[in-house]
Amino acid sequence: MRKIVTEDDCNTFEGWLENIQGIDPTTAAPDVLADWRDLYAELTKNPAPKVGLMKLKLLMPGEHRYAVAIREGSDLWLTFSVRRAPKGDIFLMAPRADGRWNPH
Question: Could you tell me the CA-to-CA distances from 19 to 1, 31, 33 in Å, in that order?
């Protein structure tokens, strides 16, 4: 059975290397480990901005929700979500890190 990996398991270099990259830090060559450590330092220095958590309420009868995402390598980015209300109204939600952005 595979171990369940939490976000906390990946907050250190060793956890990131083992759980995200699939490399055992105890068996990796020192020069390879140094290259991975440099990459980890660069990635954690300027992390991608957080957009925020979506707080979704329970679906009402007749309501439908859809999400549109883009896969970039091993990352999956939420582009927007669509909600169709029971009365037929359609709402498009586009989460963005910059709250000043106005799509209209």
Answer: 15, 20, 15
Helix (H, G, I), strand (E, B) or coil at 81: strand
SS3 string of 14-44?
Answer: HHHHHHHCCCCCCCCCHHHHHHHHHHHHHHH
The Cα–Cα gap between 102 and 32 comes to: 45
Res 57 pLDDT > 60: yes
Give the Cα-Cα-Cα angle 27, 73, 101 (nearest 5 degrees). Answer: 130
- d(Cα 85, Cα 28) in Å, to the nearest integer? 53
Q: How far is CA 88 from CA 2, 5, 60, 83, 85, in A?
A: 43, 40, 13, 9, 5
pLDDT at residue 68, as a whole number: 85
